[in-house]
Amino acid sequence: MVNEGVKIMVHPHSVELKHITKTFGSVVANDDVSMNIREGEILSLLGENGSGKTSLMNMIAGIYYPDAGEIKVHGKVAEIRSPKDAFDLGIGMIHQHFKLVDVFTATENIALGLNESEKFDLKEVRKKAEEICKTYEFDLDLDQKVYSMSVSQKQTLEIVKVLYRGASLLILDEPTAVLTLQEIKKLFNVIRAMKKNGKSVVIITHKLNEVMEISDRVAVLRKGKYIGTIHTYEASESLLTEMMVGQKVELNIDRPTPKNIVKRLEIKHLNVKNIYGLEVLKDINFDAYGGEILGIAGVSGNGQKELLEAIAGLQVTEPGASITYYPQNSDDKMEIIGKTPKAIRNAGVHLSFVPEDRLGMGLVGSMGMSDNMMLKSYENGHSIFLDRKAPKELANEIKDELGVVTPGLQTPVSRLSGGNVQKVLVGREIALSPTVLMTAYAVRGLDINTSYTIYHLLNEQKEKGVAVIYVGEDLDVLLALCDRIMVLCGGQVNGILDGRTATKEEVGRLMTSHVTNLEETAGEDDVDSEIYQTEPSKAAAEEVKANE
Amino acid sequence: MSKENTIKEPLVRIVKKDASSTKRAILVRAVAVILALVVDAVFIFAVTGINPFGVYGVMFKATFGNKLRFSWAMRDLVTLLCVGIALAPAFKMRFWNIGAEGQVLMGGLATALVMVHLGPALPTPLLLLVMFLASAVAGAIWGVIPAFFKARWGTNETLFTLMMNYVAIQIVSAAVNILRGKASSLGKLNIGTEYGWFPKLFGQRYYINIIIVVILTVVMYFYLKYSKHGYEIAVVGASENTARYTGISVRTVIIRTMILSGAICGLCGFLIVGGRDQTISANTAGGNGFTAIIVAWLAKFNTFYMALISFLLIFLQKGAGEIASTYALNDFAADVITGVILFFILGSEFFLNYKLIFRKNVKEVE
Amino acid sequence: MQAIIAWIMRAVPFGTIIMYGAMGETVTEKSGNLNLGVPGIMYLGGFAGFASAFIYENNAKNPNGFVCLILSLVCCILASMLGGLIYGFLTISLRANQNVTGLALTTFGMGVANFFGLFLLQGKSYTAAPLANSIYSAKIPGLSGLGAFGNIFFSYGFLAYLAIVVAVILHRFFNKTRTGLKLRAVGENPATADASGVNVTKYKYLATCVGAGISGIGGLYYVLDYNNGIWATTGQIEALGWLALALVIFATWKPLNIIWGAYLFGVLYWLYQYLPSVLGITTAVYVSDLISMLPYGVTSIVRIITRMKKKRENQPPASLGLAYFREER
Fold first, then answer.
1. B136-192 pLDDT, tens per residue?
2. B48-71: per-residue pLDDT in tens?
């Protein structure tokens, strides 16, 4: 059909999605989504956790197959049944969980995805990959086995893989979550370079600052539904937030003044190394008080998880550290380090802990609400048999009070929606009447109403005299909810601020100031302007105009 | 128009679905068994030309023909069921104890050694008690070795327990060679004195086996479902991370559960040697250690379902044996028929967990 | 010296049987499928090979050795692959549990072989296929007559040499070819392989069936060469099948290790016979039973040591034993 006389058939759209619906069991991941990706643009796909961004892109990449709807690539209806089909259409996706084979070298991993038609020659692959690394200034040892690579090296390898295949559409799923600031900058430069080569790039993200900095257009999903696409130069953070959450967020969180604050925890010289021997917590010192909410801010992956786990007795700490606990009804203090989680509890220390990975750790997915209630209390009583009555009553209570939507108390919690799962978890922790309550990303993936329920519960605990530690990612919430905010960056405490007087900029600066990387002073200035700018990037706006 | 533009949705897509209702679960399994019996009938007919319905009638007689035959079937059923019960806690913990065969053998060997060496020295009740304890300890040791390495270094238990079976078989063969001395084979132990033989109940020694296993079935059911240990096993099986977070010591639970699993296997050896065979050989476990794995898995760790599935398998074995003697075939028909039925039941699980979506219509584009 | 040569001459054929079993299972396991049905498959292969040769020999007017060879080999491989296909269909398409399916296949294979075997036996305790045996155990003329050297290296049937060739081919296949690379990726991380455009289902099926075909040759070699072409109702092949599974672990999933591992197992297996003549140790009968467990004991120890050392290259394929479902959530 292509007329020889016409040199280029311009398809303005690289990919068009029409009425795409995808369900998993009873969960609707994408509901009648129609949108498009233009040729040669950088598109941000924005949405909260669980809004269906990744599953939508997985359908373009051939990981999932839509239940309904159609996908057009370069104007033609495409049948993307497998990732191979996607490659053949020039679509490459870099997943959040890297798709790499651990026991393979970088070169072998690249060779794995090559076309059958190409000759299989690892040396040739290595040579070509090296050229790509040179072009984009990647620092990658192509003979290194993947299992010995750092996270950012693995991501680099993923990008090299896609570039090697010469994809015309590159989808990046939350690419910056695991990167340092310098690495993010480098990544953005790569993305811009790709755009210059006429390639289309989709970045899945929930970080507004990144959207504003890198993208030409922003598409927004909310709870599986498509909300709309706007040009970045027309966008503002408040507009995007509104699109993301549905209404303008007037954070109206109560913050009662702390009363009768008492020291509960004293953390001194806490150092933690991960399994690779890297320091993930460096000399952490702080106190937590009953009757206040201590917020912990930081880009995720900067030691929050390890910190909470160390206090919960789940993390091996380096010698010299001390975590002192001051019990409620006695003057005896107690050293937590060295005790098992169970021993900590048996000694009367009520550390409740809402882990980040709700189903992987805090709850047993295959058990019902009722049985999950017993996870920490099943040992109560002297009988060798379980007491199922109390947990059942508790489950009913939580179901009614927090409005958990579940077909029954025996329904496996893995079948509940994210919000309901979180309610079950937080409800149980609070029911244990803790003196210290630690929560990590307690509202991740929850709708606004549920989030407010959680904030309210935390405030209730605070007023009861509980020391609440709230690890969060949303600065607005941290600033509205917490009495004090401790900022973690690179495993260090970069500062502890008063939640009532601190500004977003202050917190933001502390979050991204790697103390150890101070030699990059120039980079530090950029931190303010690039990551926390609220105005749309002028350069990006001009670029879009120029394209049009 | 080029052909490439003719695009089809895949013919069949597989979608995971929420749990099936009990009714559907029963229906699917029933259909699987019936289909398997049909396939077996075709197989029997094709090979022998015998009317398959007549064959199934003969099979039925093998188990239900008379009281004695029924009691034999029950005797063999409880042997299989006992191993299944032993495996239930391990499997629920997602610990693949493929080593039941060896654990049963070691239990049986310990029983036999006690019978031979302490038989004359101890009064019967005490002797039986020592036999019981020795068998449980021997089985537990055999079970806990792979558990220890799994808990400590994370070695794959499937392969390790499998290896342990053969070590056990060789040890038992060696012991049998020692025990028989210069005799050509090892007959019944303590044949004149009957030291350590189970007392007769209703005329048969193995009735004690049946009673013990019935009790075990009930106790294990409650242990798994209602005890604190059972809960810990379920948590470790579902997610080791959750168990750690909760403060459950995963190592302790793995080791404790495998001691239990091995001990019950050992106990099964005790029942076989004391109550059924009164002797020991490398065939004492008779493949029950392997068959029980299938039983325990298909029953989803519910001991009452295990009894049902064991019954089905024993019924088939007995029936095939009967066919063999009636139609001058051979016992191995049982293995073939059992194999086919297992394949069908295993395959039927799929239809409980997934559903197929067939293409509705073929769309043509441009 | 004479005794040592005799020892080696028994160890090599024994090793050859389990070498085939182990190589086939390695191919299967590289795709992430742990097939505990190896003994059943070796039964199927051994029986089909024997039965076809037996029937041909007894019914053809002028049985031709070459035809007999090809016929039995093809039948053996087809029957074994059929066993693999059953396992594959249940575990790959229907996602049944691999351990349980494998064990069921062992029961089934053993049942089928011995059930139909009795039709060939017709009441006798054993029967033979002499022509097939003469071909499978034919030695290399000339070379086998070179005294001790000839005995050690050239006194075996062709399948013994083919086994080594297959092992070397597999080694190159896994490490130097695109298909091998993809197969390993499927076993290590099927989601990654899938994302890279590898048809995981196809690879798992192919690896399982081809692996079963190779394993089955072990059964064929046992019956038509090692056992002098004699078929009898036996539990021996089952034990050999489990030994082959042990060998896979012992060799840390590497074909080249399988070669010497198989011979080592053979040497250990026959150790009891040659203790008196070679080492001058006389032992009671029961000691031979204890010696027979050495391969399993050694394998267990090797497994523990490699696990403790945590070298990634020596671990089983990471997704071994797990079904893959792309849309799992």
1. 999 999 999 999 988 888 777 888 898 888 889 889 988 888 888 777 777 787 777
2. 777 777 777 777 887 787 888 888
C147/chain B closest Cα distance in angstroms: 36
* Candidates B222, B229, B365; nearest CB to A77: B365
Beta-carbon count within 10 A of C283 CB: 12
Name the burial class of residue A547, with classes exposed (0-12), middle (13-18) and buried (19+) by CB atoms within 10 angstroms of its CB: exposed
Q: Provide the whole-model pTM.
A: 0.81
B149 contacts on C by Cβ (under 8 Å): 304, 307
List of chain C residues whose C-beta atoms are within 8 Å of the C-beta of residue A65: 327
| CA atoms in the 13 A half-sphere facing the CB of C65 | 8
Cβ-contact A163, A136 below 8 angstroms:
yes
Q: CA–CA separation, A252 vs B293, rounded Å?
A: 58
Spans of chain C, pLDDT less than 70:
143-145, 326-329
How many whole angstroms separate alpha carbon C204 and alpha carbon B37?
A: 29
Which CATH superfamily does the domain covering A13-245 fall into?
P-loop containing nucleotide triphosphate hydrolases (3.40.50.300)
Measuring CA to CA, how many Å separate C77 from each of B58, B148, B172, C234? Answer: 36, 40, 35, 20
Q: Is there a contact between C118 and B332 if contact means CB atoms under 8 Å apart?
A: yes
Q: Report domain A250-350+433-517's class.
A: alpha beta
CB contact C287 to B (< 8 Å): yes
Q: Of A464, A421, A414, which Cα lies nearest the Cα of A441? A: A421
Which residues in chain C have their CB less than 8 angstroms from residue A99's CB?
Answer: 189, 191-192, 195-196
Q: What CATH class does C2-141+149-314 carry? A: mainly alpha
3-class secondary-structure state, position C60: coil
Strands B12-16 and B354-358: antiparallel
Per-window interface: B 172-201 vs C, CB < 8 A: 173-175, 177-178
Q: So where are chain A's domains?
A: 13-245, 250-350+433-517, 366-432
Interface predicted TM-score of the whole assembly (ipTM), two decimals: 0.86
Return the exposure string of C204-236: e unless at least 16 CB atoms fall within 10 Å of the residue's CB, then b. bbbbbbbbbbbbbbbbbbbbbbbbebbbeebee
Q: pLDDT for A401-431, tens place per residue? A: 877 777 778 888 877 776 778 788 888 888 8
- Shortest distance between the Cα of C272 and any Cα of chain B, in A, equals 13
